Amino acid sequence: MAMLSNLAILILAGLGHASIPEACRWVGYDCFTRPLGLLGLP
After folding, report:
1. How far apart are the first and last CA of the chain?
2. CA-atom Rg of the chain in angstroms
3. Is the separation of the CB atoms in 11 and 38 below 8 Å?
4. Are the CB atoms for 26 and 17 separated by under 8 Å?
5. What highest taxon heads this organism's lineage (predicted)?
6. Has this prediction a pTM greater than 0.85?
7. What is the mean pLDDT of the chain?
8. How far does Cα 33 stand from its chain's mean position?
9. Eight-state DSSP code of residue 1
10. Which pLDDT band, with edges at 50, 70 and 90, does 42 fall under?
């Protein structure tokens, strides 16, 4: 579980998010399309 959390943090940091809470709000805003978009899926 910690590995998935660290992976998510690395992906969000790679997108330019400096704050983890802000990044979680950004992803959670549109919870069905943004996680898929981060992975490059339609």
Report:
1. 25
2. 10
3. yes
4. yes
5. Bacteria
6. no
7. 77
8. 11
9. -
10. low
| pLDDT for position 12 | 80
Residues 6+ apart with CB under 8 A from 38: 11, 15, 27
How far is the C-alpha of 10 from the C-alpha of 19, rounded, in Å?
A: 12
- Which whole-number Å values give the CA distances from 11 to 2, 4, 34, 36, in the listed order? 14, 11, 12, 12
Residues 12/5, Cβ–Cβ less than 8 Å? no
* DSSP character string of 8-42: HHHHHHHTT---HHHHHHHHHHTTTTHHHHHTT--
Q: What is the pLDDT of residues 26-41, one digit of tens each?
A: 777 766 666 667 777 7
The answer to whether the beta carbons of residues 6 and 13 sit under 8 Å apart is: no
